[in-house]
Specification:
The protein is an alpha/beta fold. The chain is built from twelve helices and nine strands. The chain binds glutamine (GLN).
Length: 273
């Protein structure tokens, strides 16, 4: 395929998979069609689309935004440049929640983006999940993904947890932004130039969202309620020093990726809220 050579020359990695995904999208066909029709000439319209997609990819646009989807925990999620592309690491968060004793009670996901977390949890646990986001585009995208996967997600526009009532949740989950503004120049151009800033950056030290969540979660969780957060660095732990049962889990490469903590039952803790 000429596309593979072009992508290789332009140092787009991985070239073969990228070319296949773009070609499948240009033809509006699945992978099996590519192999069973590998000798056929491309229809002219498909050439035009394919050429444009290759051009966009070489220009730095992530393949997921070109084809409009990303798989997460076996389901296809619609994505576009208004929402973060779901990452495979976030599947660890899903797995941790699915291993908790049930019933879990009332669950909310803060900062839904494409809906990867709340839609997956609602579908896997077969229970309603509250989805919160400040961004109307994220809420609309999550709505579409929830409908597509038959997931019972109740969406609320909210600046973090501010729309929730006190003592109303048993579990709060979030994959908040955790990149320090100062690290912006070090990011891959695909991320820096194409993914939404709201989903990536969290203040000068990258901990701003955790500060807000640690504070607001004390109000909205019931005593004994749990928080599960994706983290980028172990330093987020310090913000939860007055919580119980704090645990950090590493991903397969040994990098810290999840924090869980439990809100104390203790009334004296509640008074400090
Ligand atoms: N919850 C969404 C996800 O995990 C969005 C996260 C974000 O925008 N930081 O993909």
């Amino acid at each position: 395929m000429q596309g593979i050579k072009l992508l290789t020359d332009e140092k787009v990695d991985p070239p073969r998979l990228t070319a296949e995904l773009l070609l499948m999208h240009a033809l509006r066909k699945e992978r099996v069609f590519l192999f069973s029709h590998s000798g056929d000439p491309l229809p002219e319209l498909a050439w035009i689309h394919y050429g444009r997609y290759l051009h966009e990819r070489i220009g730095g646009k992530p393949v997921q935004y070109i084809i409009g989807k990303q798989e997460f925990y076996t389901r296809d999620f619609k994505v576009h440049p208004g929402v973060l592309i779901p990452r495979p690491e976030t599947e660890h968060l899903i797995q941790l929640i699915l291993n908790l004793p049930r019933p879990i009670g009332t669950i909310a996901d803060a900062g839904v983006g494409s809906g990867a977390i709340c839609v997956t949890l609602a579908a896997e646990l077969r229970q309603p999940v509250i989805g919160l986001d400040k961004s109307p585009i994220a809420l609309a995208t999550t709505r579409e993904n929830a409908t597509r996967h038959n997931a019972n997600v109740q969406l609320i526009q909210s600046d973090w947890l501010s729309a929730l009532r006190p003592n109303s949740l048993d579990l709060l989950v979030s994959n908040p932004p955790y990149i320090a503004e100062t690290d912006k120049p070090t990011l891959q151009r695909e991320v820096r130039d194409h993914e939404p800033e709201l989903a990536l950056f969290a203040g000068a030290d990258g901990l701003e969202a955790y500060r807000i969540l640690a504070q607001q979660a004390k109000e909205v969780l019931r005593p004994g309620g749990r928080i599960v957060l994706e983290i980028g660095a172990v330093s987020a732990r310090d913000l939860f020093s007055d919580w119980n049962d704090i645990e950090i889990q590493n991903d397969l490469s040994g990098r810290p990726c999840l924090l869980t903590a439990v809100l104390p039952q203790d009334p004296s803790f509640a008074r400090q809220k």
